[in-house]
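Example S7 (structure tokens).
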């Protein structure tokens, strides 16, 4: 009797700012892409990011051909958000102004950074000082809005904090004795009790 294998399909959400570009019709000098999210798109992005508010979100980028069928994106993502302070939970206003620099190549391209199994045991080697390796894409179209959204999310402050907020240190109860003694101190104590050799 054959077993039925059920696989879960991963549903990828459409970007709040959909900005599709046909790779094969991209002009040699590139194209400028510029867009700003309206109130509804900002609210959708707020919900996705799980933060208090997205007051504004915009992208401005130049999309250029790279090598034979690759794409180079250079620009910036900007916006204003509110997040909850990690100490007081009060709203913290934050301005985002981040570079959007990315190279994309078709899936299976020889330009994509791959692991050399013989040298690294299957692990990818990335130079932290160098540029990120090209990302792969499928199909004939790329959506600049998708990458703008990713860069926007990556540039959010992980630990937003209001100006005067400070973590209060945990105060241990000093009345109790520390049960974990230094093992070397215990050995030294035992050595003292041993009779001296003649």
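Recovered sequence:
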């Amino acid at each position: 009797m054959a077993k039925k294998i059920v696989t879960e399909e991963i549903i990828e959400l459409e970007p709040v700012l959909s900005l599709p570009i046909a790779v094969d019709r991209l002009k040699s000098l590139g194209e400028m892409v510029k867009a700003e999210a309206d109130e509804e798109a900002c609210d959708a992005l707020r919900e996705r990011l799980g933060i208090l508010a997205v007051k504004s979100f915009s992208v401005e980028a130049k999309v250029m051909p790279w090598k034979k069928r690759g794409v180079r994106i250079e620009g910036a993502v900007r916006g204003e958000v509110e997040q909850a302070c990690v100490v007081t939970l009060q709203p913290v206003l934050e301005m985002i102004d981040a570079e959007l620099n990315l190279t994309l190549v078709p899936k299976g391209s020889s330009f994509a950074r791959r692991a050399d199994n013989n040298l690294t045991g299957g692990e990818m080697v990335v130079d932290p000082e160098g540029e990120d390796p090209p990302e792969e894409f499928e199909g004939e179209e790329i959506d600049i809005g998708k990458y703008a959204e990713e860069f926007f999310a990556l540039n959010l402050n992980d630990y937003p904090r209001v100006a005067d907020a400070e973590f209060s240190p945990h105060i241990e109860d000093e009345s109790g004795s520390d049960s974990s003694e230094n093992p070397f101190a215990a050995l030294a104590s035992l050595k003292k009790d041993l009779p001296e050799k003649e």
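Notes on this example. Helices lie at 39-49, 117-120, 144-154, 183-193.
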